[in-house]
Design goal:
It is a single chain. It is built from 2 helices and 5 strands, in the order E-E-H-H-E-E-E. The protein is of the alpha+beta class and about 120 residues long. It has one domain: Roll (Nuclear Transport Factor 2, Chain: A), CATH 3.10.450.40. Helix 1 crosses helix 2.
Length: about 120
């Protein structure tokens, strides 16, 4: 497997008119964020893409929500990014009005472990 290069995330055009591109870990992190923040039905040509994370926003912030988010995120990442990463662990910590998600994954290209942490209110 070779290292991938892709569009930068978020998508942007440089001052010289070229598309911003990134490689390696930034591509994988961008793809993870895209899966997490895309709701199923949002993409016309891939209506099943995403994980519906924001559908859970109005649910009570408790251990049940955290468990549901862990399952949902893990399943979506495995489905949509399973060719490039192996999801090791998804940990969701809910506290008051804040939620923190940590995704630990192994890159298939070189078997190195990485993590992405996302915090939102």
């Amino acid at each position: 497997m070779t290292e991938r290069t892709g569009f930068g995330f978020p998508f942007a055009v440089k001052e010289n008119g070229r598309i911003n591109s990134t490689g390696g870990d930034e591509v994988i992190r961008g793809k993870i964020i895209q899966v997490l923040f895309t709701a199923p039905g949002e993409r016309v040509n891939q209506p099943e893409f995403g994980c519906g994370l924001f559908n859970l926003v109005f649910e009570p912030n408790d251990i049940v929500l955290a468990s549901a988010m862990e399952f949902t995120v893990g399943q979506a990442l495995t489905r949509w990014l399973g060719e490039i990463i192996l999801v090791e662990n998804v940990h969701v910590k809910s506290q008051a009005e804040k939620v923190a998600i940590e995704v630990v994954y192994t890159k298939r290209v070189d078997l190195s472990k990485e993590a992405v942490r996302i915090h939102f209110k």
